[in-house]
Automatic annotation (TrEMBL):
GO molecular function: 4 iron, 4 sulfur cluster binding; 5'-3' DNA helicase activity; ATP binding; DNA binding; hydrolase activity, acting on acid anhydrides, in phosphorus-containing anhydrides; metal ion binding
One of the GO BP terms on file: double-strand break repair involved in meiotic recombination
Species, as recorded: Thelohanellus kitauei
Keywords: 4Fe-4S, ATP-binding, DNA damage, DNA repair, Helicase, Hydrolase, Iron, Iron-sulfur, Isomerase, Metal-binding, Nucleotide-binding, Nucleus
Cofactor names: [4Fe-4S] cluster
Pfam families from the UniProt entry: DEAD_2, Helicase_C_2
Name listed for the protein in its UniProt record: DNA 5'-3' helicase
Length: 805
């Protein structure tokens, strides 16, 4: 916690690697809010001459962690209430706006935000500060008419438009003032510390709009929770009008921050999407203004419309120059400079002319909040986002530097870009509000790929006081400073993570015949290797009581192995002792949730099964954000090293970009392409390994299968693993010794099972572990776990359904 306090006090960026269960979230909250408490006190005492906060008071927040060290997940309510009363009396008056420091606490999903809020409720700061949670209209809207529409945002704007008859307007929006202050929340029974679900229910009861009420609360909030993209994505943060000045930005679960930053500055524009935007702007620009200001605004619409028309025509003109990439795809790849020249030559535009166009776009976006223009139709959310994104990216190409981008113009079916890092800005994603006009996959499209995460990160770091990156798996940590273009002067890694006997960390470098086992790109296609890995996984499942997570390096590898294991009866053998589940690419969120719930329910040891096994993919939906505590993951297996697909364009060009940056840079810490590539692989591996051991009383086995991860193979690779993994790692070059040691570990844990589970284990244990614990007559093998009909136990898993998703 002292590292976080030092970071904030000195305005220095900070890296914190602390696995789940070590009190990371609690430390982040107590340290940052303790500093904020002291900062507000000092600001009140001397508004003209702000002193650096005296952190002596903050040290007291360390006692919060010590007092609940024996039980990280519970605090006596009487003690909590007592602390709230004491500190409520000391609560300072609100600082002036110019000195209003804030804490932005960002995570990947709102589900994770809810977990952080529950931790906040256990601290003395729970009701000391005003808080808010940023979310999309889709997540917080309570108007049934808007929720039924294809675009909640566009319908919302229509329902609150003053030109609409009063009786047709959204009455929830009209009542926003009923729930737009913390005082009113408390008066109605909702504390300062609330989660989004409670807030939405509260606002609905008050007949008030949760979305706009939260916006009002954010204006004066001290602590703001939000998904990453609300802060890291320049387009969204500008739309939200976020004020980062003098604020502390905490990115929890930040192991993917580099990818998030590159994705936020990348976009894919379809020709049909651009023409739809052009038509929409054309309809608005034909509106006759009733005064001079309206006339000027219509001129701006016409200018921007002409620009979008020219850009879409440029994209269409590239169709004749595309070359065959494969059977289904035509492609042309530009460097940033080549794309700039091509666009400038076609559109007859220079930096000065482009800036003039940007001024017209700015006039349009500013009109959205002005009452004088409420009578003028407003572009749809998709159109507005498209405009902002096109201008943002072309500004970098035409006005700023071109070296940070590569542009791919393609036509044809979208390839399976497994292993690639680009998440298109305009692609539909319900979790982070990325949008797209509907478009056919064979439409010509321009994919702008950002090669440097520093572009997005600098947008945040240059405004805020400091950025704290925290995760259980930040390793390797040396990549953040050069990749994000900002120094991280404060860093901390937890190495003394496991208690004696709490877990084993094994590396198996051989197959069942003690031959070296490497799961490289070439080896995974070898049937003998597939069979050997299947035999190893089966042996582990026979030993481990409870849930087993098995991570593959990619979907394609998992599909190959699974099909082979079905043919060789490995899956059938596993299903006799464990219920089998398998992640699939392109799964809907609802399907993933249903699968996880089913998996959890079968992780219990019964007289029919010894738990369940879940086959998943590194970087997939299962590898983060899900709590696999206790029996949900008594063992985590990783197969190979999850290197990204080096043949994917953005991976290939990113490596070349780093090599060139290294060659031209005088700074020693710039990563080469290969170093960056290794970092991507091992960070994904570390994240998968972190699914096991979720709290201080948890226990389990972590098993890495690949000779390349052994100390004797390449010691330099070990530096990429998390510190706690390196510390406890034990290598095996004999398969029988490995299984014997694993068996001894689980035998030593017999006393930790429930009495019912112990009786079941004794009854079911047989020397070969091949005893059929799941009678075929049980009917369990025919059970369906998903709405889409995918069978998960002893059934056929249809990998072809979403192959190109």
């Amino acid at each position: 916690m002292s590292h976080i306090i030092t970071s904030i006090k000195k305005s220095q960026n900070c890296l914190i690697e602390s696995p789940t269960g070590t009190g990371k979230t609690l430390a982040l909250l107590c340290a940052s809010l303790g500093w904020l408490d002291d900062f507000k006190r000092n600001s009140q005492k001397n508004a003209e001459n702000l002193d650096e906060p005296d952190i002596s008071r903050v040290v007291d927040s360390k006692q919060d962690i010590d007092s609940i060290e024996d039980d990280l997940f519970h605090i006596p309510q009487d003690k909590l209430k007592k602390k709230k009363i004491i500190y409520k009396k000391e609560k300072p008056a609100e600082a002036k706006k110019e000195n209003h420091a804030r804490i932005y606490y960002c995570t990947r999903t709102h589900r994770q935000i809810a977990q952080v809020v529950s931790e906040l409720k256990r601290t003395k700061y729970a009701n000391m500060f005003k808080m808010s949670i940023l979310s999309s209209r889709k997540m917080s809207c309570v108007n049934t008419t808007a929720l039924k529409s294809s675009s909640v945002t566009d319908k919302c704007r229509q329902l609150i438009d003053k030109s609409v008859p009063f009786y047709e307007r959204c009455h929830f929006y009209q009542n926003v003032n009923l729930s737009d202050s913390n005082k009113k929340l408390r008066e109605k029974g909702l504390d300062n510390c609330w989660n989004l679900e409670d807030f939405v229910a509260f606002c609905q009861e008050m007949n008030s709009c949760p979305y706009f009420s939260a916006q009002k609360l954010t204006e004066k909030a001290d602590l703001i929770f939000a998904p990453y993209n609300y802060v890291m994505n320049p387009v969204i943060s500008e739309q939200m009008s976020l004020d980062l000045e003098n604020s502390v930005v905490i990115l929890d679960e930040a192991h993917n921050v580099e990818d998030i930053c590159r994705s936020s500055m990348s976009a894919c524009f379809y020709y049909n999407s651009l023409t739809s935007c052009y038509k929409e702007l054309g309809a608005i620009s034909s509106f006759h203004g009733k005064d001079e200001d309206s006339t000027l605004l219509m001129k701006s619409y016409m200018v921007v419309n002409g620009f979008i028309s020219a850009f879409s025509n440029w994209l269409k003109s590239q169709e004749s120059e595309l070359e065959q990439k494969d059977v289904m795809v035509l492609e042309k790849v530009f460097s940033g400079e080549e794309c700039k020249q091509s666009i400038q030559d076609f559109m007859k535009i220079d930096p000065g002319c482009f800036k003039d166009n940007m001024m017209h776009l700015q006039r349009i976006t500013e009109s959205f909040t002005k009452e004088d223009f409420s009578h003028i139709p407003r572009p749809s959310e998709i159109c507005t986002t498209t405009l902002t994104s096109v201008f943002m990216l072309l500004e970098h190409l035409i006005v700023k530097s071109t070296k940070f981008f590569v542009v791919s113009v393609t036509k044809g079916s979208i390839d399976d870009l497994e292993g690639g890092q680009t998440n298109f800005l305009l692609q539909e994603n319900t979790q982070d509000d990325k949008l797209a006009y509907s478009s056919k996959s064979n439409d010509i499209r321009a994919n702008f790929i950002c090669l440097s995460p520093s572009l997005a990160f600098s947008h945040v770091s240059r405004h805020c006081r400091c950025v704290v990156l925290a995760s259980g798996t930040l390793s390797p940590m040396n990549s953040f400073a050069p990749e994000l273009g900002s120094p991280f002067d404060v860093a901390f890694q937890t190495s003394n993570y496991l208690l004696p006997g709490q877990a084993v960390v094994y590396t198996l470098g051989v197959d069942t015949a003690n031959h070296p086992l490497r799961l490289t790109f070439n080896h995974v296609n070898n049937l003998k290797h597939q069979d050997e890995v299947g035999a190893i996984v089966l042996s582990i499942c026979e030993i481990v009581m409870g849930g087993v997570l098995c991570f593959f390096p990619s979907y394609s590898v998992m599909e190959k192995f699974y099909r082979r294991w079905e043919m060789t009866d490995v899956i059938n053998s596993i299903s006799k002792i464990k219920v089998v589940f398998c992640e699939q690419r392109g799964m809907k969120t609802s399907d993933v949730d249903e699968m996880i719930d089913s998996y959890f329910s079968f992780c219990k040891i019964t007289r029919r099964t010894t738990g369940a096994v879940l086959f998943a993919v590194c970087r997939g939906r299962i590898s983060e954000g899900i709590d696999f505590r206790d029996n949900r993951a008594r063992a985590v297996i990783t197969l190979g090293i999850p290197y990204p697909n080096i043949k994917v364009l953005d991976i290939e060009r990113k490596m070349s970009f780093n090599d060139e940056s290294k060659r031209l840079s005088s700074i020693s810490n710039v990563l080469t392409g290969r170093e960056w590539y290794n970092t991507q692989a091992f960070r994904a591996l570390n994240q998968a390994l972190g699914r096991c051991i979720r709290h201080r009383d948890d226990w389990g086995a972590i098993i890495m299968i690949d000779e390349r991860l052994m100390r004797s193979y390449d010691s330099s690779s070990l530096n990429y693993l998390s510190a706690w993994v390196r510390k406890y790692q034990i290598d095996f070059t004999n398969f029988n010794e490995f299984t014997s040691s694993l068996q001894d570990f689980f035998d030593s844990k017999k006393g930790l099972y429930t009495t019912e589970e112990e009786d079941t284990i004794k009854e079911n244990r047989a020397p070969s572990y091949l005893k059929n614990l799941l009678p075929k007559s049980s009917g369990l093998s025919k059970r369906k776990y998903f709405k889409n009909g995918m069978s998960r136990v002893q059934g056929k898993i249809d990998f072809s359904r979403n192959k190109n998703t």
